[in-house]
Write a structure and sequence with these properties.
Blueprint lengths: L5 E8 L10 H11 L3 E7 L3 H6 L13 E8 L2 E8 L15 H18 L6 H5 L9 H11 L5 H9 L14 H10 L3 E4 L11 H6 L4 E6 L4 H13 L3 E5 L14 E4 H11 L2
Helix pairs in contact: 5-6
This protein binds zinc ion (2 copies).
One zinc ion binds next to loops.
């Protein structure tokens, strides 16, 4: 079997503008040191990286692909839709991204209130201290729970306190995936289903394709190798482009750097759409 050359890419990374642990400049320095062939910083519900720090990415030329990860909600579960190659401007994805910061803060307040009602000693101040001034997400609440001793570690915090099956869970969005997909496609972006195995998003794949979904994140650190093989088959059957990302939120022991290896041939469909 002949294999095409492999590329090192990471099309799914976060900064402190949403819930990542590295500031934009720190992440950009790490990307430069790592030497990725293509990458995208896709913060949750904001293009702040591009609107406020676009100049940091100029040196990467076409290796840097614009991106955003939009939170949506469908059939009782949270689904994340990535939008790539969107044009950068204050009105981009207006209505989908507008006011998300206040929506996310309001959601955190609701979760913290529910936790307090359950007797967990945690305050909004504890959570806000974890954010570094960026948008609030559940990882910040998880870190505050660990710091306060209410959870052993981040996964324990999600499992027992703030995961989607917990009493304190509040959905982050009333936006539907179809609305996010339509908005991303309408501005010329490429809509991609993020980490399809999470929250069984994969079950909804065909309805998302009907709504105009263009691609699927086949390689993700949330997947096992057999997941990627199955998702690759599904992508090919449905004529979807394939992407790869680690959902990098900062260095960890297992993943000190962003990036994953992918066959150039498998990424070509995506690159053709996004680098047009
Ligand atoms: Zn996500
Ligand atoms: Zn993500």
């Amino acid at each position: 079997m002949s294999r095409s050359p492999s590329l090192t890419v990471d099309l799914h990374m976060h900064t402190t503008i949403s819930d990542g642990r590295l500031a934009p400049s720190e992440l950009v320095d790490l990307i430069a040191a790592t030497g990725l062939d293509y990458f995208s910083i896709a913060d949750h519900d904001t293009l702040g990286m591009y609107l406020q720090h676009g100049e940091m990415l100029e040196r990467f030329g076409r290796r840097a692909i614009s991106g955003v990860e939009v939170s949506t909600f469908a059939q009782g579960r949270e689904l994340h839709i990535l939008g790539y190659g969107v044009p950068i401007g204050p009105a981009t994805l207006d209505g989908v991204l507008t006011d998300r910061k206040s929506v996310r803060r309001e959601r955190a307040v609701q979760i913290v209130t529910k936790l307090q009602e359950q007797g967990v000693r945690i305050s909004m101040d504890d959570v806000v201290r974890q954010t570094g001034g960026g948008m609030i997400g559940r990882p910040h609440i998880a870190r505050a729970l660990v710091e306060s001793g209410a959870a052993r570690d981040i996964s324990d915090a999600f499992e027992r306190h703030i995961g989607s099956s917990c009493a304190a869970f509040v959905p982050s969005s009333t936006l539907t995936p179809a609305e996010a997909i339509a908005a991303i496609n309408a501005c010329g972006g490429v809509s991609v289903l993020a980490h399809p195995t999470r929250n069984a998003a994969e079950e909804l794949l065909d309805s998302l394709v009907d709504a105009g979904l263009r691609g699927i994140e086949v390689w993700s650190t949330s997947h096992l190798p057999h997941d990627a093989a199955r998702l690759r088959t599904k992508a090919r059957e449905r004529n979807l482009v394939m992407t790869a990302g680690t959902d990098f939120h900062g260095p960890t022991e297992a993943n000190p750097r962003p990036g994953t290896s992918v066959d150039a041939e498998d990424l070509q469909g995506f690159l053709d759409l996004v680098l047009r």
